[in-house]
């Protein structure tokens, strides 16, 4: 999707012009009257870590051992309409395929929604920023060629930064994303930069960019105990993505559980159906990511991963 087409679509969506002085409130005063979507209308996106097999976060093996074509074919057979890719995996894929070939493979298997991740340290400077910008540039250029729906960004360092800097840097990143025809979605993570819903929305609203918005991750919203009554009042223009997974009612070792013990939908105690109803009440009609980082699942076959992820998540609708 080129810049002109992307800008036109964003305008047709009825979004406020970036930089407008009419800033919306962080939370809507009234929930949308949107009718709940029929199950036949639901589209799922296989988030990267769910189907990455032996890939392991924060190690030298962050890329998937499964070939891109095999993953795309398996996801297409299972019923997925979207797929996600981590930056280290993108680098690995581009050693075998060009970005244009990557897009063709995805198109051939009915993959309409592409998610790229993860831009970190976008609010830093110096050597850290230089290193982060390499990933930033890789994902932005790839997003344009594969016509990615969005790029996920966030923080995994636990740094702090003043809100005015976060707003400025996020606004700039969104502008770059628009130039490459993609959305820039912020994933709030507890304990990290803008790690509460209020902080995340203050940053997103302050940037006031048409292609900026929030990723509602079931795991993080449960961790922060965000009520569904609050989620359903999120401004639709900023509700850019939703990720589903399951887990325990209470955590014993959050840092380990978040990357090793997330569960498939229905295997834990999260109120997944309540969250789905909340985001649909807010008017969300995009794809739902299935993000399950689970140590045991890393040894499963590709077919088992995609089949179980798809079937257990669709049962929530």
What does this entry look like structurally?
The chain has 317 residues and is an alpha/beta fold. The protein has a single domain, classed as TIM Barrel. Helices cover 40% and strands 12% of the residues. It contains 12 helices and 8 strands. It has helices at 3-12, 68-78, 87-93, 99-108, 126-146, 163-179, 197-207, 218-223, 228-231, 254-260, 272-281, 302-314; strands at residues 44-46, 82-86, 113-119, 150-153, 183-187, 212-217, 239-244, 288-290. An 8-stranded parallel beta barrel has the order 1-2-3-4-5-6-7-8, surrounded by 5 helices. Helix 2 (68-78) runs parallel beside helix 12 (302-314) and helix 6 crosses helix 7. The model is unreliable at 2-25 (pLDDT under 50).
Corresponding CATH architecture: Alpha-Beta Barrel
Give the neighbour order of strands across the main sheet: 1-2-3-4-5-6-7-8
Instruction: Give me the oligomer status.
Output: single chain
Number of helices: 12
In terms of DSSP E residues, the strand content is 5-15%
Q: Work out the helicity level.
A: 40-55%
CATH class: Alpha Beta
Overall structural class, as computed from helix and strand content, comes to alpha/beta
Q: Could you spell the SSE succession in H and E letters?
A: HEHEHHEHEHEHEHHEHHEH
Distance between the termini: 30 Å
Shape: globular
CATH superfamily: Divalent-metal-dependent TIM barrel enzymes
Overall tally of structural domains: 1
Count the E strands. Answer: 8
| Low-pLDDT residue intervals, each spanning 5 or more residues | 2-25
Average residue pLDDT: 91
Q: What's the CATH topology name?
A: TIM Barrel
Calculate Rg over CA atoms.
18 Å
Main sheet record: 8 strands, parallel, barrel
